């Protein structure tokens, strides 16, 4: 019986995932990225800027920044001192401006001015973690990835899709439940749903389109 426990738990999680997917597709049949960008490099920069900041605020400053510099070469020439005033309204602006300048230089020096199409290459860049790399891999290059942010972490735990508090393990659990071709779509749907229906505070499970179905599941 003990040997059957992991498989039973996985079957239960998969059933929950089926319920989640059905509701998400009903509410969000089409989803589009929340960040504005021009090319893989500007997507990388916008995603880096979105850390601890709303996408709306990021989209308010990136048109100015990308008019000045939309390639690694241009951004490296612009430099931290010129980047900083443009993004000053965003959280962690000093650190972000330093990282953007540094990663732009590294792209020019080590990658021929191109954004690498591997996790290893992306995560070698200053300020670029696994979540940012996952967004770029999926959205810029069409390589399946499942970025996990705070919304997705909360929902995965709340809906018992993952029993872990570790982001890497949650990502692995979600990838196990959904096919690769759905990963990025589910990522976006979960973010939208978490913001609109399933917040961290003042949440009413009985009124939530998904929690209400999973309360007794």
Give an account of the 3D structure.
The protein has 217 residues and is an all-alpha fold. The chain has two domains: 2-30 and 146-214, Endonuclease Iii, domain 2; 40-141, Endonuclease III, domain 1 (Orthogonal Bundle). The chain contains eleven helices and no strands.
Helix-strand layout with pairing:
Blueprint: H1 5-27, H2 40-49, H3 55-68, H4 72-86, H5 93-110, H6 119-123, H7 130-141, H8 150-158, H9 167-177, H10 183-196, H11 211-214
Helix pairs in contact: 2-7, 3-4, 4-5, 8-10
Q: Strand tally, please?
A: 0
Low-confidence stretches: none
Q: Could you say which structural class the secondary elements and strand pairing correspond to?
A: mainly alpha
Distance between the termini: 22 Å
| Beta-strand proportion | under 5%
Elements, N to C (H/E): HHHHHHHHHHH
Describe the main β-sheet briefly: none
What's the number of structural domains? 2
What spatial form do the alpha-carbon principal axes imply? elongated
Write the CATH architecture name of the largest domain: Orthogonal Bundle
CATH level 1 class label of the largest domain: Mainly Alpha
> What is the gyration radius calculated from CA atoms?
19 Å
Per DSSP, the total helix count is 11
Helix amount, in percent?
A: 55-70%
Residue-averaged pLDDT, rounded? 95
Q: What is the CATH superfamily classification of the largest domain?
A: Hypothetical protein, domain 2
**CATH topology (level 3) name of the largest domain:** Endonuclease III, domain 1
